[in-house]
Design brief:
Blueprint lengths: L18 E3 L9 E7 L1 H4 L2 H16 L6 E6 L2 H9 L5 E4 L2 H10 L2 E17 L14 H14 L9 E3 L5 H12 L13 E3 L4 H11 L2 E5 H4 L4 H6 E6 L9 E9 L5 H11 L5 H7 L11 E2 L14
Parallel strand pairs: 2-3, 2-4, 6-7, 6-8
Antiparallel strand pairs: 1-3, 4-10, 5-8, 5-9, 5-10, 5-11
């Protein structure tokens, strides 16, 4: 949902993109699609999707070369980018907020794009002594972490949790877990063990590694950061593909109601959810040399780009 009012008849807001993708065809080509998102841009998935979409239109549909722009933003900012006509498509990670964006009229289409997964990570030395078995939930682990943080609050090596504290999907998710166990560590009086560090996913995870703090991150970020970060940290709980898993992180593509490039935005989303289009890129996308696939396909029956069912 947007936290600002949409200006329906306003001119598109032009700001400098974070990155521009043109599939190495023509670096001077016009930007004909603007996408706002966070982690998928940092992991490189959006670059892979943008380049492949350009090639699809140029090679298969005889379209002239064009470019796709990425505007780096967290989930909350991505809604505002639609409202301000900065972006034509936003990829976001909060179902309720996405439905509100539709009700607000800033988006008129929402499609399940892929599944990411939340992960509780922390120092490999595990100073909080978190322990889990097959029946341990993420709520159990947050309770363990809370108790350890309270027990060490006055020690020279206190156990701390890093929150991005920026209205991002990660911030919303970890806040929902804390409140589920009866805690609001950001409220007055502020809990000293709750480290508020406002930044994008890569930088937040880097800070957590440097400070030996626990944090909630997503698999796409975890697999894409520098190797030394993963060497210093461990995964204590990771989400699966079940829609009932509290650590599933579903990504949806929203098409802006008043986007500058509305037709191309809808074409992109059509291609994104097609089995032989964007889903094939997502199915195989890896950001490291180990071939670790970052994301899962969306749990839907897709059509191919030609419109035939893919059973």
């Amino acid at each position: 949902m947007a936290s600002i009012r949409a200006k329906h008849n306003s001119k598109p807001v032009e700001i400098e993109p974070t990155e521009i993708y043109h599939a190495n065809l023509d670096s001077t080509s016009n930007i004909e699609l603007r996408v706002a998102t966070g982690g998928a841009g940092q992991s490189g998935l959006l670059r892979a999707l943008g380049d492949a979409f350009v090639l699809h239109k140029v090679n298969n549909l005889q379209y002239k070369p064009f470019a796709v722009a990425w505007h780096a933003s967290d989930t909350s900012a991505s809604f505002n980018h639609l409202a301000q006509n900065i972006a034509d498509v936003s990829i976001t990670y909060h179902a309720a907020a996405e439905q509100i964006a539709i009700l607000q009229g800033i988006a008129d289409r929402r499609e399940y794009a892929w599944r990411d997964h939340w992960m509780l990570v922390g120092p490999k030395s595990n100073p909080a002594k978190l322990h889990a078995d097959a029946n341990t939930t993420i709520y159990d682990l947050f309770i363990q972490l809370f108790c350890a943080a309270i027990d060490t609050a006055s020690s020279k090596d206190p156990i701390r949790f890093l929150s991005r504290y920026d209205k991002s999907a990660a911030n919303i998710k970890e806040s929902s877990i804390w409140t589920a166990i009866g805690q609001t560590p950001w409220s007055h009086p502020y809990s000293t063990w709750y480290h508020r560090s406002v930044d994008f996913p890569f930088k937040a995870l880097k800070v957590a590694a440097q400070l030996d703090e626990y944090t909630l991150t997503d698999r796409g970020t975890w697999c894409s950061v520098e190797e030394w970060i993963r060497e210093k940290m461990a995964v204590f709980k990771a989400g699966g593909d079940s829609e009932d898993d509290p650590l599933i992180n579903p990504a949806h593509a929203l098409v802006g109601t008043y986007g500058k490039n509305k037709a191309t935005a809808n074409e992109f989303v059509d291609w994104l959810v097609s089995a032989d289009g964007g889903q094939e890129i997502i199915r195989t996308y890896s950001a490291d040399n180990n071939g670790s696939v970052l994301y899962s396909l969306a749990p839907s029956q897709f059509k191919t780009c030609e419109g035939t069912n893919n059973d």
